[in-house]
Amino acid sequence: MELAQVRLLVSDFAACYGFYADVLGLKPQSGATEGPYEKFSPHVGSAGIALQDRAMMAEVLGELGETVTGHRSLVVLRVDDLDAYCAEITSRGATLLHGPAPMTDRMRVAHLKDPEGNLVELQQWLLLRG
């Protein structure tokens, strides 16, 4: 078994597309800026994040509501230099909710939200000291 992707169901596809492509700098697979589906990949690694139009999935399953409340997902991206990456993405319109700050003795993190309110955690792994 292989994890293919984490898929987020979104209502404003174009805004989310712009966030993952233009703000976070992930590579879109096809360039389908209006949806209903797109997969994004980082420059390194094989994991991906995909967006799917929420209304389209509601037609398939028949049980998804129009509005989502509360946090139902957390997308985690690992970066080499958290401070530099946060400076880069805030210059492109991202708003940090928290950090960069230590989370444990092994990790520093920052948090932000995409246009649909999905939480994104940026991680920088640290070498153990001692």
TrEMBL record:
InterPro entries: Glyas_Bleomycin-R_OHBP_Dase, Glyas_Fos-R_dOase_dom, MMCE/EMCE_epimerase, VOC_core. Residues 2-125 form the VOC domain. One of its GO terms (molecular function) is methylmalonyl-CoA epimerase activity. Keywords: Dioxygenase, Metal-binding, Oxidoreductase. SUPFAM superfamilies: Glyoxalase/Bleomycin resistance protein/Dihydroxybiphenyl dioxygenase. One of its GO terms (biological process) is L-methylmalonyl-CoA metabolic process. This is Extradiol dioxygenase. It comes from Streptomyces filipinensis.
